[in-house]
Amino acid sequence: MNYFSSNFKLGILGGGQLGKMLLYNTRKFDIYTKVLDPSNEAPCKIASDEFQLGDLMNYDAVYNFGKQVDVLTIEIENVNVDALEDLEKEGVLVYPASKTLRTIQNKAKQKLFYVDNNLPTAPFTRFAYLSEIEDAITNGGLELPFVWKAAQFGYDGNGVKVVRKLADLENLPKGECIAEDLVPFKNELAVIVARSPSGDTKTYPVVEMEFHPEANQVEYVICPARISDELAKKATDVALAVSKSFEHVGLLAVEMFQTQDDEILINEVAPRPHNSGHQTIEASYTSQFEQHIRAILDLPLGRTDSKVGGVMVNLVGAEGYTGNVVYKHIEDIMNMNGVTPHIYGKKQTRPFRKMGHVTIVNEDLGEARRIAQEVKQSIKVISK
Amino acid sequence: MNYFSSNFKLGILGGGQLGKMLLYNTRKFDIYTKVLDPSNEAPCKIASDEFQLGDLMNYDAVYNFGKQVDVLTIEIENVNVDALEDLEKEGVLVYPASKTLRTIQNKAKQKLFYVDNNLPTAPFTRFAYLSEIEDAITNGGLELPFVWKAAQFGYDGNGVKVVRKLADLENLPKGECIAEDLVPFKNELAVIVARSPSGDTKTYPVVEMEFHPEANQVEYVICPARISDELAKKATDVALAVSKSFEHVGLLAVEMFQTQDDEILINEVAPRPHNSGHQTIEASYTSQFEQHIRAILDLPLGRTDSKVGGVMVNLVGAEGYTGNVVYKHIEDIMNMNGVTPHIYGKKQTRPFRKMGHVTIVNEDLGEARRIAQEVKQSIKVISK
């Protein structure tokens, strides 16, 4: 198919910041895009060739949108999978596949998939209702502490909580969930795997993540991870095995724990460009966004190695501020060596909301990490 | 001023490929943009916050557009300067300044400016009409060969011709022009200077240009130029002197000749992002487009050094093809090491029309140059 002509149409479900960064690359290749999103203020409202308002969980909205495109991809997992399944039957190329999304959307199903495919992950128990967890604890069937995870629609750390005492269960959603062993880990790592329909596969370097303790959101992403080559290979092999098990097409971001005894356990995966790959825009030969486009269009995959060391800092809304966003001291961080802010264009800030990210690149990764700390201490996302 | 809020509006005169690449960066910083262009098919029609149709040479169109923005910049020189002058008087920040554009728009004025400011350039004579050149030749006042240049509106090699015999003057525009000594040169070089209103200045590495013999368009841009440090310093100092003489704000691309005896002579300048800086998107710490935005908004300038070696190849319409464009073998070049195509999105191709460019980056500049040759030999811009 000639993608580089306006006869071809690429559909993207979701018009948020990931979609926005995908569009830089569809624009660069002059690939025609249609975007579906429920919000009139979606970052993708401009820069897409066509923007359509619609509920991503609504069958008709997704089906009717999908019928108008040749290839359909996502920038968020929470979409109507039944519609995708029917679109696949009718010949629309849907990447990632509906089958994969169905598995990933439900954390219990996702964990069972790892078990079924002999992929390493932390031990867990599945519960249909939160109340069953309380029973299990009281009758000794489940030991504290553990990690509670909602089965459905967790995002950006919502739907995950460390439970150390019964009271921690209060105010949690009542529905399907899992209780996962609390694994003491040294490090959180991630590997992004790109795979095309023809099976061509490339992996980005292993990255290391530092999380914000309260928000449970990534605070720093460090590329490459400061780990041994042996461990890096182990993490990369696990990521490749996951991508292969899903027969995945497009990007698959695999988040992993490095345990105290250097075992690798899969935490969760995202079948799309991912926060742990934002630094690839400035640090890598091929950004994760360009790579996703290359993969789903079955174009040759680009180099995944780095030109320079990269560190990514998320810009999240400061605590205590809700309303029209102001980026305080952004000029100061732009004055720092190798610093590029990415502002997503969301009008309203609230505590811990992802409003943008900042990439710091440097020949010397340690120096990049040092500057990242300065960035973090300087810029504040507040409201007017 | 808080640029990172929708109260601020940046205006761009011209909605072509340079504007399109500027918009990647205004989007990245979430800076609100308005674009004025005469074509309904302009690449900037999407990705700008507001797109307005209008003639860039029409006083009212430019003036009324300019009144709606806080800062006004250009992506093409041929705009109505009287309107810009009035907008400046009324407090709109216009970068580059109308005074600078007036000088640059007219090649005779531009050459005189260099002379007045003791900036090195090839000797020349100014003529009000082409007929005066014929007289000068016949009565021995002007020696063949020389370079004829139209004073007004030369672009992409149009309006420039080497005159070796009287007959070469046939079919040339009749109006104001200059006759410039034909300087035998080793090399064509260019330096992009970024300067902000506060006078902060940075220069990109000297690049080396290889021209297409017939089309007189850049065929390869090689960054950094393969010249001595001494010569690089000389070229950089000349470029800085030009920027300073204009008290320029924004990017100034200075094209220069390296003569047989290693003198540097200014050929011409462009007061905007320039073809000789496209490789900065992939090769530099800060792309020329981001740098232009930083400069005109008086934000801190970014690093101008390179992460890796870069070579840029223009994608121009193949001879003998006019009509709906097809990029033949684009998949092949995307399979080459470190190759990124940029497709501008023009629907129609014609011989030598700039349809896009390809950047090749590599740790080894020689390898990048070798791959660039393969790219050039592989991809063909033809019509259906």
UniProtKB/TrEMBL annotation, chains A, B:
Q: Where is the ATP-grasp domain?
A: 111-297
Which InterPro entries does the record cross-reference, listed alphabetically? Answer: ATP-grasp, ATP-grasp_carboxylate-amine, ATP_grasp_subdomain_1, PreATP-grasp_dom_sf, PurK, PurK_C, PurT/PurK_preATP-grasp, Rudment_hybrid_motif
List the GO cellular component terms.
cytosol
Name a GO molecular-function annotation.
metal ion binding
GO annotation, biological process: 'de novo' IMP biosynthetic process
The chemistry this enzyme catalyses reads: 5-amino-1-(5-phospho-beta-D-ribosyl)imidazole + hydrogencarbonate + ATP = 5-carboxyamino-1-(5-phospho-D-ribosyl)imidazole + ADP + phosphate + 2 H(+)
| Superkingdom as given in the UniProt entry | Bacteria
Which pathway, metabolic or otherwise, does it act in?
Purine metabolism; IMP biosynthesis via de novo pathway; 5-amino-1-(5-phospho-D-ribosyl)imidazole-4-carboxylate from 5-amino-1-(5-phospho-D-ribosyl)imidazole (N5-CAIR route): step 1/2
- Per UniProt, ATP binds at 107, 149, 180-183, 188, 267-268
Q: What is its EC number?
A: 6.3.4.18
Tell me one Pfam family matched here: ATP-grasp
Q: Which UniProt keywords apply?
A: ATP-binding, Decarboxylase, Ligase, Lyase, Nucleotide-binding, Purine biosynthesis
Task: Give the EC class as a word.
Answer: ligase
User: Which family does the entry's similarity section mention?
Assistant: Belongs to the PurK/PurT family.
Q: How does it assemble?
A: Homodimer.
| NCBIfam families xrefs | PRK06019.1-5, purK
- Sum up the protein's function in the record's words: Catalyzes the ATP-dependent conversion of 5-aminoimidazole ribonucleotide (AIR) and HCO(3)- to N5-carboxyaminoimidazole ribonucleotide (N5-CAIR).
| Protein name per the record | N5-carboxyaminoimidazole ribonucleotide synthase
Gene field: purK
